[in-house]
Specification:
One of its GO terms (biological process) is DNA-templated transcription elongation. InterPro entries: NGN-like_dom, NGN_dom_sf. It holds the Pfam family NusG. This is UpxY family transcription antiterminator. There is one protein chain. By secondary structure, the protein is mainly β. It is built from two helices and 13 strands; from the N terminus they run βαββββββββαββββ. The protein has two domains: about 90 residues, NusG, N-terminal domain (Alpha-Beta Plaits), CATH 3.30.70.940; about 55 residues, SH3 type barrels, CATH 2.30.30. Helix content is about 15%, strand content about 45%. Strands 1, 2, 5, 6 and 9 form a five-stranded antiparallel β-sheet that branches. The chain has a four-stranded antiparallel β-sheet with strand order 10-11-12-13. A hairpin with a 4-residue loop joins strand 12 and strand 13. The longest helix has 13 residues.
Length: about 160
């Protein structure tokens, strides 16, 4: 039996959902986490759904099937790490799914400053996930999750 891995696909800007739908339609296992945000224009406020990972979609497939994603319009390339397509562990996908399902947005901290390591706890079977604070602005901080190879924005 072939081993299936999760890979990160880079998409054209603002086409994550369309790419995910198209990949799913050709039989590829896809995960594109979406969150709801309140956006304000000069004349109104509106709730909009935006991807958690801008210009990225996660796909689960065998190594030999990696080129199938390029059959879909909107796919740009794979995300690479150390010269190889970045592979995301199943546990990391589970943490992301559980965090999205629980609506987890707040991390309990006293003060956050750049360079701090923070732990997120209590996501089901996965005990803890660590990340390093890259930037802090107002009530948001950007945390680097090295195991995933990207930066996550947290509301604090």
């Amino acid at each position: 039996m072939q081993q299936l891995n999760w890979y990160v696909i880079i998409t054209k800007p603002r086409s994550e959902r369309k790419v995910a739908d198209r990949l799913s339609a050709i039989g590829i296992d896809v995960y594109c986490p979406i969150k709801t945000e309140m956006r304000q224009w000069s004349d109104r406020k509106k709730k909009v759904e935006v991807p958690v990972l801008p210009s990225m979609v996660l796909v689960k497939l065998a190594d030999k099937d990696r080129n199938r994603v390029f059959e879909v319009t909107g796919v740009v390339r794979y995300l690479f790490w150390l010269g190889e397509p970045a592979v995301v562990r199943e546990e990391e996908i589970d943490v992301l799914k559980k965090a999205m399902d629980s609506g987890l947005n707040i991390v309990e901290v006293d003060t956050i400053k750049v360079g701090d390591m923070i732990e997120i706890e209590g996501l089901g079977s996965v005990k803890k996930e660590k990340g390093k604070v890259k930037y802090v602005s107002g009530n948001r901080c950007w945390v680097v999750l090295e195991s995933l190879g990207y930066v996550v924005t947290l509301d604090i």
